[in-house]
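Take a record:
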Amino acid sequence: MLPNELTESDTSNRRSFIQKTGLLLGGAALLNIPAISIAQKISNKFETYTVQNIIDLIIKEAKLSPFKDTVDNIKAGSADQIVTGIISTMFPTVAIIEEAVKLKANLIIAHEPTFYSAVDNLAKQETNAMIQKKQALLKEHGITVWRFHDYSHFMQPDMISQGVKKKMGWESYQKKGEPLIKIPAISLEKLIQSFKKNLSIQHLRAIGDLKQTCSNISLLPGAWGEQAHINAIEKNKPDVLVIGELVEWETAEYVRDARKMGSNIALIILGHSVSEEPGMELFVQWLTPKLPGLPITHIASGDPFLWI
């Protein structure tokens, strides 16, 4: 319906509203209360938040103190911007920015970098056309991007790992302080199928015997690096190391040689984005009750690869 296409019922309802509002404001005058203060209370149904308000709230609610050295800072936009809506995601891709525009959300909270390097180094921005285009797109739509990486991993429990365990139904299988998730015995093949189903992964990679039994899991979603991978194998002796991504000539070759030398260690590679996405989805469930009335949506940035 266009604004000027009002029915008789619409007109009557609007007239009634104006009359009631007039009585309310008139009563305010009699009580010597400025009418504008009541109007503000009517229009400001929910509290407004700046980007910085929300960052501060997240750190406080996570029971952490601000980190001096961290990648968790604003990558584009302004800390003073009033937030109209929040998008949570893994990577703030161009597609995610477009979805934010559709939803009228002007704050993207992303787990991973915006500008294609670990610390979002913009030293080459003057000669990098893609960085310039992405910055221009964010500026055009007034969108601020804040990275939520270090704080998420320092939460107790780790927000990202907890998201994966929740999706897998493993929340009760890891005791506090223990490095391994101890699940009921399952074959490597069935474990792989469970990851594909519960995390909505179309394809993943593995090293090992599909028939071997798995019970003790070392879970390192995302990109921990080969030293953390190998340390987890050496110290914790898992049946399976489950990771997000790897450098193929490091962890994969270590596992291949270890198996040849008599170890039964298996490796499952989920993919970086899909392995940590459940954590950012859980983050929305955690944050929403703390910001009542503010639209907060998780949108998966997804697997970037075409499997052929």
Remarks:
- The beta strands are 74-76, 86-89, 107-110, 144-147, 181-187, 205-207, 213-220, 240-243, 266-269, 296-298.
